[in-house]
Amino acid sequence: MSGCIFCQIVNGEAPGRIVHRDALVTAFHDRRPISALHLLIVPNEHIASLNELDESQSALAAHLLFTAQRLAAQMGVAEKGYRLVMNTGRDGGQSVAHLHLHLIAGRLAGWHLG
Ligand code: AMP
Ligand code: ZN
Fold first, then answer.
1. Is position 100 annotated as part of the catalytic site?
2. CATH number, domain at 77?
3. Handedness of CA 69, 74, 79, 81 (dihedral sign)
4. Which residues form the domain of 38?
């Protein structure tokens, strides 16, 4: 979707520190990390938020989760632990209208809710 910053990162039209990409999802570093490790995992196709995710896309939803699990292991934080957050809508603190899962690990530097 033109004008969507995460679509632009997925399509290589905007810079992003990409750590993983496959047919369904892309993962990259958050540009304003709130902890030592702060990644965003997004579907490659534009889905505005969890509200727009259809149950027919359950394979994509599962893949988001298992990509987070795999990246946590790869980044060496699986044992110590990490946090997965999906802000949804205005009151949920969602500031970018392209569905994304935050993978946050290490001591929190603060938590903003949008
Ligand atoms: P949320 O508040 O849940 O919508 O999270 C959006 C996140 O996207 C924030 O943590 C921002 O720091 C991050 N963000 C916004 N623009 C970019 C960008 N161009 N590259 C990387 N992260 C971004
Ligand atoms: Zn998008």
1. yes
2. 3.30.428.10
3. negative
4. 5-105
Task: Read off the pLDDT of residues 77-99 as tens digits, 9 standing for 90 and up.
Answer: 999 999 999 999 999 999 999 99
How high is the pLDDT of residue 113?
46
Say how far apart CA 100 and CA 41 lie, in whole Å: 5
Query: Out of 48-57, 76-85, 100-109, which region has the weakest mean confidence (pLDDT)?
Result: 100-109
pLDDT of residue 72: 98
The tokens of 37 are what? 């490790």
Q: Which of 13, 31, 41 to mutate to test the pocket of ligand 1 (most atoms within 8 A of CB)?
A: 31
Domain count across the chain? 1
Q: Is 69 part of any domain?
A: yes
